[in-house]
Specification:
Layout (H helix, E strand, L loop, with lengths): L1 E4 L4 E4 L15 H8 L13 E7 L4 E6 L4 E5 L13 H6 L4 H9 L2 H11 L8 E5 L13 E5 L4 E7 L6 E6 L1 H6 L9 H4 L6 H22 L10 E4 L1
Parallel strand pairs: 1-7
Antiparallel strand pairs: 1-2, 3-4, 4-5, 6-9, 6-10, 7-8, 8-9
């Protein structure tokens, strides 16, 4: 683990490292393990946009409607693990009011309304991540640390190199401030786009180019000469 100050161009290395937790062998392995342990009881549907929630008072079930108005089924319980379906940012990304907001009004439950009001007031710290994967380990071995925090740079905040997976990968994390200036931009092919988010390809390229440029400047400041090997995946935002 290391820290690089882009203003002073000083690098410091840390021998001790905080305890980090992640799924093995892949980032998604934890959730995959939870689902597989309930095989036969859990049906998983990815990339499915819920456009409307409705609670049927007579049947006491939740009815879910998809993006194109299709019926996605009726369910006894509704568990929401993300604030996006009630947060005002939904309208900026997908258009239209947050779907759970309407359902809450129909329920007329004071506790639910209070909870949703508190959630809608939350403010997040967005981050853009540019990801690349390489066929050879040599593409990333020149970096002084696998986890590098960058300070004093308006665009780049963190560099993460993963060398112990099938394909060596590089993840470049932006600063919160930079991401805020491009809050309505999304990576092509990502979950947001698959669910109907509106994005501009020109803006996407501007974001990606700015992050990569800051990474290159950081490498220059560190005196690191990376190989000219082209990624086999990416750079993807």
């Amino acid at each position: 683990i290391g820290t690089y100050n882009a203003q002073s161009r000083v690098y410091s290395h840390s021998i001790s490292a905080p305890k980090l937790y992640r799924g093995r062998p892949h980032m998604s392995s934890l959730c995959e393990g939870l689902v597989s342990s309930q095989e036969g009881f859990v049906e998983v549907n990815f990339r499915t946009m819920i456009k409307d929630f409705h609670f049927d008072q007579s049947e006491r079930v939740w009815q879910l409607t998809g993006r194109d108005g299709e019926d996605l089924g009726s369910f006894d319980w509704l568990a929401v693990s993300s604030s996006s379906v009630v947060h005002p940012r939904w309208a900026k990304i997908y258009g239209g009011p947050p779907p759970l907001e309407k359902a809450a009004r129909e329920l007329g439950d004071e506790a639910v309304n209070q909870t949703l009001n508190e959630i809608s007031a939350l403010e997040g710290n967005p981050v853009f991540v540019v990801m690349q994967a390489f066929e050879a380990m040599s593409a990333l071995e020149a970096l002084p640390a696998n986890l590098l925090t960058v300070t004093g740079d308006p665009v780049l905040a963190k560099i993460v190199a993963t060398l112990d997976s099938g394909l060596p990968s590089l993840a470049l994390h932006s600063t919160h401030e930079f991401a805020q200036t491009w809050a309505n931009t999304h990576g092509k092919g990502g979950t947001a786009e698959a669910m109907g988010a509106r994005s501009d390809s020109g803006e996407e390229e501007s974001v990606r180019s700015a992050i990569i440029e800051s990474f290159q400047k950081t490498c220059e400041g560190l005196g690191v000469k990376l190989p000219d090997e082209q990624p086999c995946y990416g750079p993807a935002l």
